[in-house]
Amino acid sequence: MPQRVLVVDDDRTVADVVCRYLTHAGYLVDHVTDGAVALAEVARQPPQLVVLDLMLPGLDGLEVCRRLRQRPDGVPIIMLTARGDEADRILGLQLGADDYLSKPFSPRELVLRVASVLRRAGGEPAGVEPEVLRDSGLELRTGPRVVILDGRELALTLREFDLLAHLMRHPGRAFRRAELLDRVWGWSFGDQSTVTVHVRRLREKVETDPARPRRIVTVWGVGYRYEPTAPTADE
């Protein structure tokens, strides 16, 4: 069945173009102009993805993003921001947006971003053997896209999961932020603060003390690496 995308934007001109391109690409598209209505629509019929404008009347995009991230289904979110709103864009990523585009943007690029996020949300493609990555109480399973820490399942966004999986596949190797943008996000260029924000969020979920990370460590002047932790006595 076609995948359903909810577009939340009060700019009729932008929304019409976005909806037209997504429909042409084969998605079922619904459009609302209000944050509160968007939350009610998601509760009524959860979409596979939400395209969410930051500037909305009443309940703004940041608050809508925060509330969507409280849902257990983890619906993917692509946030639309004004080009100059760097602080708000970073805050959106901190709240759990999976991707963003700055206005004005190419509708074709948005369609590609939607396809990329949904592809990742769908798990391993056909023919790819699922992986199980383990490290001292941390277990990542690529098939069901599940991460378990000390017996408790973690709530990770799509990008957080993909970032952790990439780092765990290459323990001890330092990656530049530009490399991570390319390999995890699929961007040949972009705002490298995106990586910084996701690393910070990931540390809050997998580190005992995020201020003194042991697993995802900073390599000064380079970027980040995954450092396997020492096994416990009963491992």
Provide key terms for this protein.
alpha/beta; Arc Repressor Mutant, subunit A; five-stranded parallel β-sheet; about 240 residues; Rossmann fold; four-stranded antiparallel β-sheet
H/I helix tally: 8
- The SSE string, one letter per element, is EHEHEHEHEHEEEEHEHHEE
For the biggest sheet, the summary is: 5 strands, parallel
CATH topology of the largest domain: Rossmann fold
Helix/strand-derived category reads: alpha/beta
The percent range for strand residues is 15-25%
Instruction: Write down the domain tally.
Output: 2
Strand element count = 12
Give the overall silhouette. globular
CATH architecture of the largest domain: 3-Layer(aba) Sandwich
Report the average pLDDT across residues: 87
Low-pLDDT stretches: none
Per CATH, the class of the largest domain reads Alpha Beta
The CATH homologous superfamily of the largest domain is termed Response regulator
The end-to-end distance, rounded to whole angstroms, is 44 Å
The rounded Rg comes to 18 Å
Q: Order of strands side by side in the largest beta sheet?
A: 2-1-3-4-5
Descriptive account of the structure:
The chain is of the alpha/beta class. It folds into two domains: 4-121, Rossmann fold (3-Layer(aba) Sandwich), CATH 3.40.50; 132-226, Arc Repressor Mutant, subunit A (Orthogonal Bundle). It contains eight helices and twelve strands.
